[in-house]
């Protein structure tokens, strides 16, 4: 029959065609260890070897775009199959990169492919990663491709993830700690170094707490080369803590601190604003917070208070008085003047105040202030009163006899004061009103304002200016407009009598007190410190 040969021919023909189809469509052998690598359409060129060497360029762009699309969609398995000689931890590296840097999403834009001969190509691309807390992170990189085994592959390296990873570089997230809430001066500047006010700022530390005061940490994404060079790529700046404004003046604080440099004995300077009581400076080298908490006999600086009592009782700066070398009040012991005080005899109250004549003030107090006028004047000027600042109450007690009154009148016996209290006394003399002290701006002060009786402040200013121009403070040059009062206070020690040195005063709205523990004469020790302080303002 003729049909058998025809059937055989058909079978042979089908076998030939089937073999050809298989040869054309079987998968290309993938790189070692990854047999499920996909064939990319448009890959290696035709199979006719007689036509010359293969030209694989036609499929390189497809491979690159497929890789970038898989990367954008976090299809790490497909990416891995497209990489030649893929590292064993390829997928783990990508996971770690995203997790460690907080990558939330990735968008990629391919560029124009460039061929390097027939076996290599490069496709630049742009990327934008969304980084948790930092936002959009733009970068540029290059996808390299090679032709091997009849197809195109991605030639992956760490810098494919980001150029900063080349040659052992790394990327890191670094916290940017916020500056904590901070107490600052009234000009919002920081306090000067070694200011002597540190212990007082600690008292104000509770004002630094609270959600509205704390800062917010920032975050930075940085590239670090193998040599340790750092480049900041992305940053969320920290938000510093709130600046808590105090009443302190940086200029006045610096002047006070530097005025105490080199002083061998424990000492302090307190300065306040005369018209408000706001603390402008505290330079405390007494230890602890003794410029506010320490109570010392103020010696002759208390004659400002005694003079206020005498003026309230009807005397004036020009009232005639006597200044003998010593004086014993009725029923009391004799009190001498200091050896430096001249014997004036008949004089005026302002002249006796200027040279700090003890006998004048003992005589006039025991004559005029028997009704408790000295205590009343002291209380107008802040004694026996709780202070708004964290400070001890300065004290004076009612006198029981003339000896006590005489000693109180010259700042001894029951009279105890801190440098803060005496600075406030000087401030009241300049402004005419005693003010509660404050270290924080815009804070309500307890106790309010206490105006001095009519004429008292004016008389005190006249007398305190005379101290500087012709009296016990005239030997040391002070800036024009300074008024004040020297003081030397006796204390009993185990080794005998010692003396604290004082000077209080004011100039152009700044009142102050200087104390040097066991410093001797106020004119010799405290006054030069006050001069350094005032000349630095």
Write a concise synopsis of the structure shown.
This protein has 537 residues and is α+β, with helices and mostly antiparallel strands. The chain has helices spanning 3-25, 60-72, 76-81, 90-101, 158-161, 198-203, 250-260, 290-293, 303-312, 349-355, 358-368, 373-380, 402-409, 419-431, 456-469, 522-535; strands at residues 103-110, 114-115, 120-131, 135-148, 151-154, 170-176, 182-184, 218-224, 230-236, 243-245, 267-273, 279-284, 320-323, 326-327, 335-336, 345-348, 433-435, 449-451, 483-493, 496-507, 510-516.
Strand content: 15-25%
| Overall form | rod-shaped
Average pLDDT taken over every residue = 89
For the largest beta-sheet, the strand count, sense and barrel status come to:
5 strands, antiparallel
Query: Approximately how much helix is present in the residues?
Result: 25-40%
Instruction: Quickly give the structural class.
Output: alpha+beta
Task: Note down, in words, how this protein is organized.
- By secondary structure, the chain is α+β, with helices and mostly antiparallel strands.
- The protein has helices at residues 3-25, 60-72, 76-81, 90-101, 158-161, 198-203, 250-260, 290-293, 303-312, 349-355, 358-368, 373-380, 402-409, 419-431, 456-469, 522-535; strands spanning 103-110, 114-115, 120-131, 135-148, 151-154, 170-176, 182-184, 218-224, 230-236, 243-245, 267-273, 279-284, 320-323, 326-327, 335-336, 345-348, 433-435, 449-451, 483-493, 496-507, 510-516.
- Strands 1, 2, 3, 4 and 5 form a five-stranded antiparallel β-sheet that branches. It has a five-stranded antiparallel β-sheet with strand order 12-11-21-20-19, sandwiched between helices. Strands 6-8-9 form a three-stranded antiparallel β-sheet, with no helix packed on it.
- α14 crosses α15 (456-469).
């Amino acid at each position: 029959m003729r049909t058998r040969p025809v059937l055989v021919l058909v079978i042979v023909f089908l076998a030939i065609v089937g073999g050809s189809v298989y040869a054309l469509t079987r998968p290309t052998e993938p790189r070692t260890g990854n047999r499920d690598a996909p064939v990319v359409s448009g890959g290696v060129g035709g199979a006719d070897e007689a036509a010359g060497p293969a030209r694989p360029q036609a499929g390189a762009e497809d491979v690159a775009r497929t890789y970038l699309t898989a990367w954008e969609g976090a299809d790490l398995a497909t990416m891995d199959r497209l990489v030649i000689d893929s590292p064993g931890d390829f997928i783990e590296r990508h996971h770690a990169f995203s997790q460690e840097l907080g990558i939330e999403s990735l968008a990629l834009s391919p560029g124009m492919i460039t061929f390097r001969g027939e076996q290599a190509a490069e496709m630049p691309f742009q990327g934008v990663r969304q980084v948790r807390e930092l936002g959009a992170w733009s970068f540029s990189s290059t996808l390299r491709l090679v032709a091997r085994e009849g197809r195109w592959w991605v030639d992956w390296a760490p810098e494919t993830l980001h150029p900063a990873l080349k040659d052992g570089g790394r990327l890191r997230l670094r916290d940017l700690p916020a500056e904590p809430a901070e107490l600052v001066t009234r000009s919002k500047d920081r306090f000067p170094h070694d200011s002597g006010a540190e212990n007082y700022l600690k008292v104000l530390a509770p004002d630094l707490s609270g959600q509205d005061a704390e800062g917010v940490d920032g975050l930075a994404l940085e590239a670090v080369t193998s040599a340790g060079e750092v480049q900041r790529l992305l940053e969320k700046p920290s938000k510093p803590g709130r600046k808590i404004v105090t009443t302190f003046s940086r200029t006045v604080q610096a002047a006070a601190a530097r005025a105490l440099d080199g002083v061998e004995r424990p000492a302090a300077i307190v300065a306040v604003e005369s018209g408000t009581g706001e603390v402008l400076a505290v330079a405390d080298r007494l230890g602890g917070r003794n410029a506010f908490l320490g109570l010392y006999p103020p010696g002759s600086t208390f004659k400002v208070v005694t003079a206020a009592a005498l003026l309230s009782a009807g005397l004036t700066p020009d009232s005639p008085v006597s200044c003998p070398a010593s004086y014993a009040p009725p029923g009391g012991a004799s009190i001498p003047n200091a050896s430096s005080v001249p014997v004036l005899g008949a004089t005026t109250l302002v002249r006796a105040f200027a040279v700090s004549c003890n006998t004048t003030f003992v005589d006039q107090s025991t004559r005029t202030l028997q009704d408790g006028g000295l205590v009343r004047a002291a209380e107008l000027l802040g004694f026996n009163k709780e202070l708004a600042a964290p400070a001890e109450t300065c004290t004076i007690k009612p006198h029981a006899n003339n000896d006590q009154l005489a000693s109180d009148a010259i700042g001894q016996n029951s009279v105890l004061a801190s440098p803060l209290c005496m600075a406030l006394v000087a401030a009241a003399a300049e402004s005419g009103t005693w003010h509660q002290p404050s270290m924080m701006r815009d804070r309500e002060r307890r106790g309010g304002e206490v105006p001095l009786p009519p004429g008292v402040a004016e008389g005190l200013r006249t007398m305190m200016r005379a101290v500087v121009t012709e009296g016990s403070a005239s030997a040391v040059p002070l800036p024009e407009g300074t008024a004040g009062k020297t003081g030397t206070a006796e204390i009993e020690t185990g080794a005998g009598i010692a003396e604290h040195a004082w000077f209080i005063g004011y100039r152009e709205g700044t009142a102050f007190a200087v104390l040097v523990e066991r410093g001797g004469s106020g004119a010799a020790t405290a006054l030069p410190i006050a001069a350094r302080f005032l000349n630095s303002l």
